[in-house]
Amino acid sequence: MGQRGGKREGAGRKSGGVSQAKKDIAQMAKVHAVDALNTLAKIAKSGESESARVSAANALLDRAYGRPMQSHQVTGKDGGPLEHNHKITASDLSDDELANIATAGSK
């Protein structure tokens, strides 16, 4: 009896492949891209509210230059500083590393 469920050799869409439905939707949307960009530009220049103008301007910038990288703040427990328990003693360091430390402190 054949295998039911689970991973089978050669089954399913190839990894990273895009379905035909997504390709079709993207193609249909591209027909309206120029009008959509013109509408965003019009709103960015003369939209009725400041928030609409800012949103449209951000959308245009995202499409022109990509979205900006997001920064992340990492904190320790309860928002405190990160804690680490890695201890280095002088015997763990080479002579060159110790010399670098000694000269850095004198600058």
What does this structure look like?
- The protein is flat and about 70 Å long.
- The mean pLDDT is 85.
- It is 49% helix and 0% strand.
- With 107 residues, the chain is mainly alpha-helical.
- It is built from four helices and no strands.
- It has helices at 20-30, 33-46, 50-65, 95-105.
- The protein starts with 19 loop residues before the first helix and ends with a helix.
- It has a domain at 18-68.
Structural class: mainly alpha
Number of strands: 0
Return the average pLDDT rounded to an integer.
85
Q: Biggest sheet, open or closed, and with what strands and sense? A: none
The percent of residues in helical segments reads: 40-55%
Helical region count?
A: 4
Strand content: under 5%
Q: List low-pLDDT spans.
A: none
* Radius of gyration from the alpha-carbon trace, in angstroms: 28 Å
Instruction: Give the CA-based shape.
Output: flat
Listing every helix as H and every strand as E from the N terminus to the C terminus, the arrangement reads HHHH
Cα(first) to Cα(last) distance is 77 Å
